Amino acid sequence: MQMTTTYFSTRGGETGLSFTDVLLGGLARDGGLYLPESWPQFSAGELKALSGASYSDIAYHVMKPFIGDDIPDEALKKIIADVYGQNFSHAAVAPLVQIGPSGWIMELFHGPTIAFKDYALQMLGRLFDYVLEQKGQRVTIVGATSGDTGSAAIEACKSCKNIDIFILHPHGRTSDVQRRQMTSVIAPNVHNIALEGTFDDCQDHVKAMFGDEAFRTDMNLSAVNSINWARIMAQIVYYVSAALSLGTPDRPVSFAVPTGNFGNVFAAYAAKQMGLPIDKLIIGSNRNDILTRFFDSGEMKKTGVEPSLSPSMDIQISSNFERYLCDLMGRDAKALTKTMTAFKDTGHFELGDNLMKQARSDFAAYACDDETTLAMMRECYEATGYLLDPHTAVGLYAGWKARENGDISDLSVPLIALACAHPAKFPDAVEKAVGGRPPLPAHLADLFEREEKYDVLANDLESVKTYVKTNTNAA
Ligand SMILES: *Cc1c(COP(=O)(O)O)cnc(C)c1O
């Protein structure tokens, strides 16, 4: 395996970047996303040698070629051991549960905020902190949340010495569990802002702060959003881990992934490019089905967002799709830039038959409305006793559909559906589906007794900026 990967921007404006550059950079300056210039390769022999290895060992072998010498081995191994050895509540980190003939659930909710974003964000926080320490720098992270990502980001940064994190949430508009998961983290570098406005207002203020060049520089603003390459990198690990558990490289596997921004399923695609024998990647969408429509029609067409029972997938566009499109178009930056610009200007683009043929051989996609989501949760619970969260149900539905329609070869190919959140995170949907509210796992059991700390701010950009300026240690 080659030891150093360099990175380029999908729009062609930047090449030859190191891991540290793309980690701290997030979004490329030309508006593109970062990708490795080549995919590190695992031979069948190398995969075999990893079977039976711990999650941390697999994580090291998967991430090392992407990081290269930017972080010395010893430091990288310590970060991985701290994150996956201590911050996850299951010894297997991402355990598999069998729910039917050749049907498996991969549980990705054993992190601090009981959703899969912990698997990457816990790592990202530590990587940021290490690199900043080396450079003698501090950053101010600002972000907006409608509930979920905010808590995962706060948990990721709360112990970081070189990061101040400010998360804006709409005051009174998140669930109690979601708010408390953020506001009960009491740390000098964690700043929760309850904005007297909507989620869109929160997002507008964050965008405006990044758009103000002077403020951005003065505060050393940074983001940990879903387009950061390091998040994708860390997510590749659990695909490799699950496949190894079920007999890879001697037998291929398929994954069913509930998809919003296309980050999680892109990590699966990356694992496949690295040599993991993946038969089919199955995308599940809720009623916001832009991706499913794309795979049906060959046209990516933006529409409005509608609320669903799986809110973490209520998106208008899938920002990480650009990474896949870049590969699909043979890494032709000009053609990709043209397509993405057209999409921005007109809200749609179309791909020809050749590209769609390839896309449909990589992925199958199915949409699942709220009613079907509830039915799926109920059926699975009645048949197996296993309780799904609504996002997981959307993915599993797509997986069953794919098997029914012959997208997956046969029962010799295990179907692994990703459980992206613990059902207790979405108690209202669970109650609608099966009639009871699931208890929170042990480490969150006292969530409603914990002290909360947050400040309510007026829906006004200047108040938010002043608050950040006064409270950050990074300026
Ligand atoms: C973020 C999230 C998703 C969507 O993942 P993407 O990487 O954006 O496709 C699905 N389910 C849950 C529970 C999430 O938090």
Question: Layout of helices and strands, plus pairs?
Answer:
Layout: E1 7-9, H1 19-25, E2 34-36, H2 44-50, H3 55-67, H4 73-86, E3 96-100, E4 103-107, H5 117-135, E5 139-144, H6 148-157, E6 163-170, H7 176-183, E7 190-195, H8 199-211, H9 213-219, E8 221-222, H10 229-245, E9 253-258, H11 263-273, E10 278-285, H12 290-297, E11 299-301, H13 321-328, H14 333-346, E12 348-350, H15 353-362, E13 363-367, H16 370-384, H17 390-404, E14 415-419, H18 427-434, E15 455-457, H19 461-471
Parallel strand pairs: 4-14, 5-6, 5-8, 6-7, 7-15, 9-10, 9-14, 10-13
Antiparallel strand pairs: 1-2, 3-4, 11-12
Bound molecules: pyridoxal-5'-phosphate.
Pyridoxal-5'-phosphate binds next to helix 11.
Key terms:
15% strand, alpha/beta, 475 residues, six-stranded mixed β-sheet, five-stranded parallel β-sheet, 19 helices, binds pyridoxal-5'-phosphate, Rossmann fold
β-strand percent reads 5-15%
Mean pLDDT: 95
User: In what order do the strands lie side by side in the largest sheet?
Assistant: 3-4-14-9-10-13
CATH class of the domain at 96-111 and 229-434 reads: Alpha Beta
Q: What structural class is derived from the secondary structure elements?
A: alpha/beta
Radius of gyration: 21 Å
Q: State the separation between the terminal residues, measured CA to CA.
A: 41 Å
Helix content: 40-55%
User: Cofactors and ligands present?
Assistant: pyridoxal-5'-phosphate
